Amino acid sequence: MLSHLRLDKDKDSPLYIQLYESIRDAIEEETLESEKLPSIRALAKQLGVNNVTVVNAYKQLEQDNYVYTVKGSGTFIKQPSFSQENSLVEEGDMELMLSGIFPLLKNSIDFASVSPTPELFPIEEFKKSLVEVLDRDGGQAFLYPEITGFGPLRESISQFLLEHYSIAATKDQILITSGGQQGLDIISKTLIQQGDVILVENPTYPGAFAAFQSRGARILGIPMDDEGIDLVELKAYVKRYRPKFIYLMPNYHSPTTICYSESRKKEVLRLAREYGFYIIEDDFLTDLGFSDEKKLPLKTLDRFDQVIFIKSFSKIFMPGVRIGFMTLPKALMRDIIKAKHTTDISSSGYLQRAFDLYLRKGFWRDHINKITSFYRGRYRLMIAGLENLKPLGISYLQPHGGLSVWVSLPRGVDGIKLYEECGKRGLAIVPGKVFFTDDKDAEKYIRLSFSAVSEEDIQKGLEILKDVLSPSMDEPSERYMPFL
Ligand SMILES: Cc1ncc(COP(=O)(O)O)c(C=O)c1O
User: Fold this and answer.
1) Interatomic CA distance for residues 106 and 428, integer angstroms
2) Domain boundary residue among 340, 363, 386?
3) pLDDT in tens, 322-367
């Protein structure tokens, strides 16, 4: 181990830096045979240097997150906390979960899907817009649209961004996409080269993970706390890997529902500026808040064109319309437009025209108010029911918005087993594992959604969950940790 190492005393660079760099390179190139570095004394002897030189090199490696020290045992190479090699997201599982096709879903109560409720779709208003476009534009509506999208719709979106989020973006800085997922795919196509490191929150949205992975990215996850992504870890990873972009969901994060604090948002932006990476902000639920506090995107604070804002309307309008958009940073505009062209030339012109009219006629605000009050009712019901299950050892953050709750399970209860057990009794839930790509905390959580389920079924579903979580007489009682 490290037998090839040579330090040059005549060089300007201090010996400990030379040593640090050699070991760092070996770790990055994965050429070391062992996870454990040689002891300080052994390596100092081998290199003919003071112990202090090795101590300082190891300290620097630890500071930059390459190694960790176990007192009394030695210094070890740190494994990234989350990598595609040890991903637990199996393709079959993920596809099933993402498309909402659960083997157990048939005739089940659906706490799994975050699909919006069709009864809330603004069919009458959209129908008016569709008919009006046909009368107004005739065949023009079915020509190839501009690659970037129908001009008047981009104007409407520019207005929408200003009015709702205080984001200033001209129509030329907007690209209409066929849903938010396409935005993620286009960014992957534009920016990722085989082997590039992309940083994401851990857990994260598996659809984004899959898009990045499909372009050969190496994906590393950064843990989160109640205010957003962990800054210390993020900084260490950014310094070490210099990613082109990181991927975040700052409002009602999927699946944890965490909303970033203002200070966390600012710190992330500051890091992006210091280390020159883009932030992909995936916004799919900012508009669906149930308290008086209005959430704004990270993009609202972006003064230096570092945030690429990708907006999905699927949860808050109608997913089948397949319209979303992304903002275009100046430096990437041409490449992103080229990527959109090779993907599908452009999004449906007819639907873009109809959505433009829908926005211009001012239907949007009423619609958002209506769905917010509807989902608020279901949210409150779900939270009230979950409060009653707390004595069984579950816990959760109250998201005050969004369409699901991220539930931490009692000690000893495995999310996958719970998913299977609930499924047998006619309740579909999502095991947290599908959102993690390492196995550290993967079994500790489940996601419960309330968007596609009636009030009556929320009550019934919670009863099933209670039954499954309640210790039965013949099970060892230490499996449960009540009153946590
Ligand atoms: C976090 C997140 N981002 C993006 C998408 C993709 O949305 P769209 O339907 O607009 O492609 C989804 C869909 O579920 C999602 O959950």
Assistant:
1) 9
2) 363
3) 999 999 999 999 999 999 999 999 999 999 999 999 999 999 999 9
